[in-house]
## 1
Amino acid sequence: MTESPIKTAEQIENLKGLLTPIAEREPGPVLLCLQAVQTHYGYVPEGAVAVVAEVCNVTRADAHGVFSYYSDLRKTPPPLISVRLCAAEACQAVGGRALAAAWGEACAADPNLAGATGTDEPVFCLGNCALGPAALVNDQLIGNVSVEALKSAVAAAQNAAEASL
Amino acid sequence: MTVWFVPRDAAALSVGADAVAAALEARGEHVVRTGSRGLLWLEPLVERADSRDGTRVGWSNVQAGDLSEGVLSEAAANFLGIVEELDYLACQNRWIYERVGIIDPVDPDDYVSHGGMAGLQRALEMSPMSVVQAVTESGLRGRGGAGFPTGIKWQTVAEQAPVPHKGDPVDAPRHKYICVNADEGDSGTFADRMLMEGDPFCLLEGMAIAAHAVGADRGMIYLRSEYPAAIAVMSDAIEKARARGWLGESILGSSCNFDVTIRVGAGSYVCGEETAMLESLEGRRGTVRAKPPLPAIEGLFGTPTVINNVLTIASVPSILARGPEAYAELGQERSRGTQVFQLAGNIARGGIVEVAFGISAHELIFGLGQGTKSGKPLKAVQVGGPLGAYLTADALQVPMAYESLAAEGAMLGHGGLVVFDDSVDMAEQARFAMEFCVEESCGKCTPCRIGAVRGVEVIDDLLASDAPENAEQLLRDLCDVMTQGSLCAMGGLTPQPVLSALDQFPEDFKRVAVRVDVAAQGVVHE
């Protein structure tokens, strides 16, 4: 996915069409609108925050403040395959730190792996604390995870992505 | 017809439950998807109901490949026998979790035939104030960590008149809200998630009871984005509850009007703090509000608001159905009823244990949990999430209850216990507590925002210094400032894991090897 800012009048109108019903229906809609933008585009493109501000009747500064606060909201397109390792205590207790280091080495040694997965942020707790270490590959939660399990999950996700193209 | 049960809980899915269900269905078997029993080391745990009396027998750690030769056999090595007779389940006293793992979570008929809606029906026969009274008599306290008496909170909201949203004209519609905090960000806790995935109607029933008791017309569930499976199950359940008249206009034919929506979080830990959650629900940055005003008086959009944790609200239906006296008989001191403990981290038998307050951490970890998963000696247990204290192996006789843990300088939090074996480096854990605070501080209070950054630096200094006494004094002073000078638990309690590690495991802060290792790592999460 490549970056494409929201700048033409048509793009702005399309985005308003997506967001206006949310802003009219829901109280306190700024975060909801930003999440809707991300669901639609995969990230929050340049120019979208200004449209959210206008639709929600708040200042651009306020809308940008919300956008910049939440770690889920991205300003660049996501990697083709998102790999997020749990970095919290329960997974640390079963080798989470060593796994993260080994996964980093595996990606460094394999450009295809690094290219497909990018550098996603770690996540603090996936709620799978009795079956750690845990990881999220796209939307798939994996327990008792190893580098090998991550590699095969990435390969499966790649196949699924190619099949859907 | 033989009926098979395969969990759809995220933990079971994470070890292959979907493939097992698909393999059974491919063989023409009738499969019902359930929540998880909470015996997570056995997942995927597949059950089969006896065609005569419905007794369920189970098989542990089933993989799809096991089914290639035929269906599961009672002669197999992983055959468990009758699931409810397993020691881990037989010793439990399930109130909140009474249906989890048993029913199809999104089948309303299954819910009703297993005792669902009895609590709401009972509540609607009572006056709102009698419902508040019953909750007060049960002794129920907030399960999110703060432990505030639920009945008193409800009473405060019940006494307020509904008001228009802040900023709306005076003649705009007037509201009160029930907000459920499902932003379960503490590492080592997963009971909210499993309840929502395993018995979502129970949470909705509890919310409707609360709405009747305090006169609220709207409900919101603030559910973290890291739980996509829970979001899907809850959304499905809300639709079905509306179709049944369990939500919406005149619930179960009563005069109570109440509907529920879900709002999904966006990756901020501090939004689990109730006032930050309100800010986030209102669509703003999730920064903490100063109190007063209390949310019960001026909460979501300026209206009177009940904010309760998932487990608190989910306790209410069974309290009303079985009676507050029976609930209040359980537990000790001012910790009444049951607590859903979560055994996590390096533990042989991790999972959900719902029992009365007062069981010791030792019994939970060594009795039920059977010690560490690695088989190495246990070194530390973090109780109550990332802001909770680390306990040593010698301190585990402490009864698990609000008062007894507080007396040890620890806290119950959301009931999670994270076990570490002797390979853990407690200086690294102390440093992580500060790093986590750097990442997740909302930035409102200086002691938290800047103190956490300084905390990481000072711990590094302490580990690298030839005169660690000075750095240690600085760290203690810093922790004092954070504890005294922060509005919420993020800055206020981060010193708890740090100081407990420093006090209980001083040798870990003196090893040369640790110094080199930690200093070389730098700040990990940039």
## 2
Amino acid sequence: MIFGYPLLSAAVWLPILFGLLVLATGNDRNAKMARTIALVGAILSFLVTIPLYTGFDRMTSDMQFVEMKDWIARFNIHYHLGVDGISVLFVLLNSFFTPLVVIAGWKVIEKRVAQYMAAFLIMSGLVNGVFVALDAMLFYVFWEAMLIPMFIIIGVWGGPNRVYAALKFFLYTLLGSLLMLVALLYLYHQSGGSFEILDFHRMAMPSLSAQILVFIAFFMAFSVKVPMVPVHTWLPDAHVEAPTGGSVVLAAIMLKVGAYGFIRFSLPITPDASHYLAPVMITLSLIAVVYIGLVALTQSDMKKLVAYSSISHMGFVTLGFFIFNAYGMEGALLQMISHGFVAGALFLCIGVLYDRVHSRQIVDYGGVAKKMPIFAAFFMLFAMANSGLPGTSGFVGEFMVIMGAVKANFWYAFLAASTLIFGAAYTLWMYKRVIFGAITNDHVAHLRDIGNREKLVFVFLTVAVLGMGLYPLPFADIMHTTVNDLLVHLATPKVLN
Amino acid sequence: MNLLSSLSPAYAEIFLLVMVCAILITDLFIVNHTKTITYLLVQLSLLGCSLITVSTHEDGIVHIFHHMFVDDLMSDVLKLLTYLSVSMMLVYSRSYLMARGLFTGEFLALVLFATLGMMVMISASNFISLYLGLELLALSLYTLVALQRDSAIATESAMKYFILGAMASGFLLYGMSMLYGATGSLDVNRIAEVIHQGTANKPLLVFGLAFIVAGLAFKLGAVPFHMWVPDVYQGAPTAMTMFIGSAPKLAAFAFVMRLLVEALQPLMIDWSGMLMILSVLSMAVGNITAIAQTNLKRMFAYSTIAHMGFLLIGVLSGTVEGYGSSMFYAVVYVLMSLGGFGMIMLLSREGFEADNLNDFKGLNQRSPWLAFMMLLLMFSMAGVPPTVGFYAKFSVLNAAVQTGHLPLVVMAVLFSLIGAFYYLRIVKLMYFDAPESHEKLYIQPDSSLLISINGLAVLALGLLPNTLMSVCAVSVQQSLLH
């Protein structure tokens, strides 16, 4: 409580409270008020998280800004919050995106505005909760609760096939989560009655096979969220059907939650199983990188293309985790943040086009640059970042993961590096077909360039993408100690016999 | 100690009996068809019962009527919750029943008789008093279901309920008589002692146990003894369905506790296996069949079956922890069930039953608040945090993991995943679909206030579940101390 108020609780509950406030404005007659309150809430929620960065002690890997209260005393469950060098970045990323999503939905969403804004604010708070929870049950509650607003967002404001997508999204993620619950209950009894994640980290497990089972349960939960091949099929559906804001949050935030789960649970709790199963994980990651990259190349729907590109990029993240060296790990984490910015920005770009033309098909476009030059410039930058151009944020993480992979095995690196070609191919090819060439139809001929509201959003993202690409140190610096500590922890066997 | 004060643990039952008789007579003189005075008297009797139950509470376990009747913390807690849920059920169903001309003196009297039956079941410590309470409850329920006598479907379901219920009672009695033969006693604690000594005839005991478990499964509606549940739930007027699906589950839990845990604890290894089969089958059949339903009441019937399967997980783990979690599950289930049926009645009008899934289409556009309450209830039934339904599942699963039933737990979570689908479908109908009718909803102020409290309670108890969990755990623990 360095700043006089519990920072992490504020990061979690402030957006939720504002969300409820927005809900209270009721029906669409008060839409303007709902938007304003939502924006104020989102900006305030971002501002309260800034002290997390400025006040963060980079020299320690301990949890900081810790809050601890009894919650469910009967099961020894605590309201225990805290951040380390890894989670703090994701709290910031998430809070950064909330105002952008609110602004992006400002004009586009016309029906049930209050519910839309409220759903995003509440979800933002819940996602922060996932990142800062240090009690496994608290984590689980936030983890599951965030499904509810996302389910509503996809189902209410989504595209034509939204119901299918929403149900698929919910049931896929619930399956993984429930198995994780079983694993958590098992760990609870193994640890002698504690749900503290940090106790789980320190606790030895009876056998390698027990570790492997626990690892698999966690894997089910996290791999669905990441998503990894072969449980990735919900993502293209969800992305395509979700409204722009929903896609942005899915890509920028939700996917990170899964990867974060690996860092917080799988790796430190079951290090031996992680080593044992690393070849499988690496294989799955490389399949995602290469095969899904090729799949992306064939897409005719822009959102689907970016969705597959997300899966491919997240393959990089999981690859980085399971090669167990500092380059890989830090590269993966940087890649997560960069992908948040870039994929979020790309979905916003597609949203801009969709709002005007109401089509996501690449063939419906062509020659957009002639009508929307400013937009085309922003889109260009984000497309470049998605293909990993040096100088953009996309390059840093990918490069570091490839370096790490070279250390582990040349062929891993070779296959992973293919993404530099495929990524560039599918992104730039899409860009070329949409933006350049002759104006193909009337819709495009009548396009207006982006307004100030949209420019503002893109400027923020440009600063983030370029800033991180040119000077990644502030991001790497804050996670450095924690990552090293995690790697040391991972190298120590935890099996009893 | 004089006679009167020695009966103090049963004051609530005696008071209620007197009140029912009084209400039955008073009602004859009330011609007004709204029955306001009778209704208020009923609510007052329930309030009076709660006050008496609280004020006559004594620490420890007190037996009266020659060990026929027991008063412990568990019975007091369960009774208080029973009063509460009966009273909620009356608030929910008043206008519904009035619109159908069923809000009569007989209805109110039968509800109170059923309540009395539940109270006796909860406090029984002898096979005779257990059976007495059970039959008082069951006969009242049969009549309640048949109350809408000009409805063919209601009469049919009452008939089914009666015949199958009578068969179940037969099973129970047969099982009880075998246990009596083997142990020479009808007293719950005495039977446990005799079995523990090991002098009783083991095959006879197990045979009796099997009949008792079958009877219990009938009453709970566990698969394969569940056939009556969907028909009765769908056929009965919604108010009666709500009644069957709420408070009696608390009494049934007490029944299970008294019979299996207090009397037959030494046979735990035997009944635990039987319950496991019942539990897995109930979860499987309940959850899978519910998907195919288009009638909401029928869907809730199958969902009840699945919930009973979950409830049994706590009991079959055979620990105090497990029993406490089952009790918590029963309480939470009753709360959710009241809300779910309450919502159906709230949306019903004269001549229109909102019991079809499509009647919920687009509810969010017609009434966002009611839709939100239903959303909370549905997510709670599906067991998604932060609603209380999650903690109900969590605590029974925890008890099962503790006793090493990992495969059962994995099966339970997989079935609850299947279950999540049909609850989600309701949310989908309310939020994602357009309404079929734009008729204005006429909502009674008392029941809409209650549904708000009910829905928010599901959320609030989910955010802070500790108190209720501890109350359940402690009361079970106290009642098992001899």
## 3
Amino acid sequence: MADFVMPALGADMSAGTLLEWLKQPGDRVEKGEIVAVVHTDKADVEVEVFTSGVLEEVFVEPGTEVPVGTVLARIREDGASPTEVARSAAPGAGKPSSTPVEEPRLLISPSARQLARELGVDPATIRGSGPGGRIQRKDVEAAARARAGAPAAAEAAASPTGAATTPAPPAPPSAPTADRQAAMRRAIAASMSRSKREIPHFYLGQTIDMSKAVAWLQQENLRRPVTERLLSGALFIKAVALALREVPELNAVWEGEELVTRQDINVGVAIALRGGGLVAPAIHRTDELSLDELMHALRDLVSRARSFSLRASELSDPTITVTSLGERGVESVFGVIFPPQVAIVGFGTLVERPWISEGQVLPCPVVHASLSADHRVTDGHRAAAFLSTIDRHLQEPEEL
Amino acid sequence: MSTVTLTYREASRAGIRHALATDERVFLMGEDVGAYGGAFAVSMSLLEEFGPERVRNTPLSESAFVGAGIGAALNGMRPIVEVMTINFSLLALDQIVNNAATLRYMSGGQLSVPLVVRMATGAGRQLAAQHAHSLEVWYAHIPGVRALAPATPEDARGMLLAALDDPDPVFIFEHATLYPLEGELEETPHAVDIDHAAVRRGGDDVTLVTYGGSLGKCLQAAETLAADGIDAEVIDLRTLRPLDTETILASLAKTHRLVIVDEGWKTGSLAAEVSAQIMERGFDLLDWPVRRVCTAEVPIPYAKHLEEAALPSTERIVHAVKEMAF
């Protein structure tokens, strides 16, 4: 059996409202499939499952607000499925077992289970001190304390008071736009306040010669239908993703007093919403996408962000954020880092400026790139290397 | 407010005396309650004080004199019937179950039976298997009656007075070992609340639920546990029917661990009922399975060491608590 829990769709989410079940008890679900829609302060989010099996039981009715970590449904895993059997067969035995593999039942006292729900702690991660490893209240409390000591952990409900039990009240599911806006504003306020409270920011800026990139883009777009044209924004995002391969400490989160670098490069893209507010959902494995795939992902994200239908993993997975205020004519943007990430890259508008090259002043398209970074985990030298790597990639647009 | 120190026995007597003195409908009847003063000397001297009309000896027939009490109550009197021990009261069960408990219902509310029956219960005095059982759960099983278990002199006096105010049959189970127990009481007798359990000792780590003769053992166990850093809350049920589960739940919300101490046999005991109600209403509060400390499933032995071994003891309560890992 696997529990399907209310996910933390961002660092500052402590509760969410289940809006809709897209699957009913008895339905088959596949890993990665969307089974429910959850309303958060920021958006209505489609939530996927991480287990294949049969949706056995649903515990939360639509319209109910529950804390992060609350079990929403139970999924009966298909233990005898070929992949499961292959994985669980004795190493070297060579012959697949026909016995279904049952997950050992989680031993936890009712009160501890309740407390874990309230505190948003996943019981599966707790070590029990009771007989047979049964989890008791004190074990849950210890786990919650350990987690509280890790302010940047994804769970942290960093409301301005820092009290995990008093989150800003999220808007009800059918909330009018004004309420939704207010709720989003509170969520942003909490996240940004926490960022400026906890993260020692430092800022670097660099003006990048875009003449090669612009020329290449114009040429590329000539042979594309209008709907599939590439935008400079896609180049920026890809350049950032590739630069992260070379400066991996910026592709990371700050968890419990230490830097945890992430394998996958999931660039979060700040998307302004109509009527105010913003979200920064992830483009998964950005560095592995072609520019066309990236462009497609970007368009999809923008449209879904604006219709409040982002997926859970998109909100929880960014490892860095890229923000651009180019369309507004702003030349430089120095962002505030989204905790628990450790860096945000800003791009201003693409403008023509006098540019001195080989002793000659020429008109040249340029963009100002900035980096806000967490001084706990990196320093000016590495950050500068990161910016210049972005620059280098933008000088080779055909390689992006 | 002036106070007076009384034994449980004296307090019970003070309650009866106060009722006899203030309400002419009240009378006491039972085996040897007159000149002899009752099997446990509760009614000593009341015959001289109030005369044979109001303090009446009865024949050796529990069925007859409990039945007579029911008849008197039906006709407007407020009888206090004393049965020597709970073992003997079984002879009156037909009157109790089929008449006292049912007449209000069967008459569509036209009749009521404001009867009070007192009896001694429990072991600990080497009175063996025909005088020492704790069968009060059998009475707590019956709809239509109220079952009380005073554990203190204050309750021994006040519960009797409250019982006389109740329009329906009330059974008071006085634990035989408690009669010499002293306590400080308000000088003026008055009825006490008979709807709620009482927290006799506050604590945060474990809840001990008990009643009657086991209260002292639980309080003593709590002291022993306190020396080991375990802070036990002790709840005296007081009223066995209807059970005050709310007080237990409130305590459990704090301690999350429950031990029920009950001198009845474990099977079908009051402890079993409390445990079941907690499963139904307090499941999510529990951090450990409910534990019961009850009497061994044997007729109460006569031999002193065997009797002691059969009954809940301070040591067994402490042990049950310590089995729970803190």
